[in-house]
Amino acid sequence: MGRPGPFTPVDLAVQAGRPLLLRQPFDPSEFDDVILGCVNVHADEVNPGRVAPLRLGCGPEVPGWTVQRNCASGMQSIDIGYRYIADGGADLILAGGTEALSHAPLMFSEEATAWFGGLFGAKSPVAKLKQMARFRPKFMTPSIALLRGLTDPVVKINMGQTAEILAHQFGVSRAQADAYAVESHNRLARAHDEGWLEELVPMIGDDGKVYDFDDGVRRDSSTEHLGKLRPAFEKPYGKVTPGNSSQITDGASWVILASEAAVKQHDLEPLAKIVDSEWAALDPSVMGLGPVISSTPILKRQKLTREDIGAWEINEAFAAQVLSCLAAWTEPEFCDGVLGLKEPFGAVDRERLNVDGGAISLGHPVGTSGNRIVIHLIHVMRRLGAKLGVATECIGGGMGGAMLIETV
Fold this sequence. Notes:
It is a single chain. By secondary structure, the protein is an alpha/beta fold. It has a domain at 159-198 and 270-407: Thiolase/Chalcone synthase (Peroxisomal Thiolase, Chain A, domain 1). The protein has helices at 9-22, 48-55, 73-86, 110-121, 125-133, 145-149, 159-170, 174-194, 223-227, 260-266, 290-301, 319-328, 332-337, 359-362, 366-384, and strands at 33-37, 64-67, 92-100, 106-107, 143-144, 203-204, 210-211, 250-258, 272-281, 311-314, 388-395, 399-407. The strands form 4 sheets. It has a 4-stranded mixed sheet with strand order 2-1-3-8, sandwiched between helices. The longest helix is centred in the middle third of the chain and has 21 residues, at 174-194.
């Protein structure tokens, strides 16, 4: 909304974690480790993975740390905890993700920073006056750190442009991208109305204001409205607009991971179990194909077909990016040459994909999204009666992450 939001990353993590921990039969001090994904760390909360559990009452003896794998940081926290437990090194892990993109800082140029340094370092009034005389108005024009962070430092293009490349490569039209975005909003609105977002909790600001509804959903969204928006990255003929891209927003998410021994000891009722996970990489200029190259190896390894997966969550970085992933799975040449499949993987059923909308309508708090899509996938699977589900996402820098979940 053009200004910092009411919550810092740790504020978000604490308010999301408090109701989760309050309903557990064990004390928060019994966690073996706390792992929290966060990309844009607040200057006053260095290592939010340690600050958040201290504020949550886990106690000073429970270690906590922050992980950063860009868009997949929240899923990375789950994966690390899952592997700790599988290796026998832990029994209880609190794994989460948090992000307050509205608090992303403004950054002065190096030239302006040098001028400020000279001013602060001047020892005498005369030296200060001389340094002040070197001031230039352009020094007071900071850049937005978030926008700089969305530009890949290797290929020198931003995330939106990578989606444009995929749209061109796989023939995704502007109309298709806009239609997908409208569907995301409609599905999220329905999920809100039906009470299907049961894992969401309200936030309470310092002023007592209650935030009980994400403000990203546009109930009046239509292809006519979206069609009037100008391309954001490749004018005038680009396919990616603010309306069919993920929203910049704030949010946090947590899951509790437990070993079988901890489940028995504390009489816990598991929602699901992690079957497998995969991290993969590709050229940063086509990073949006990350879900394809990370989830396909899991299914090959587990000897599963597309039809075995009852629900999918593909993080909606851009509508064109999601649609390109779906198209890639149907192209024989891509499936053979890139994925090593003798036959095309096939079209993912849209009725099993992001059934309650996604980042286009709900938002994409970068460090959180990977965690959020895992926990929401579990709720969707239980609602649909699905045994197996896949949560996956593309990752800035040219990577993909995926997790295979089984309900229990």
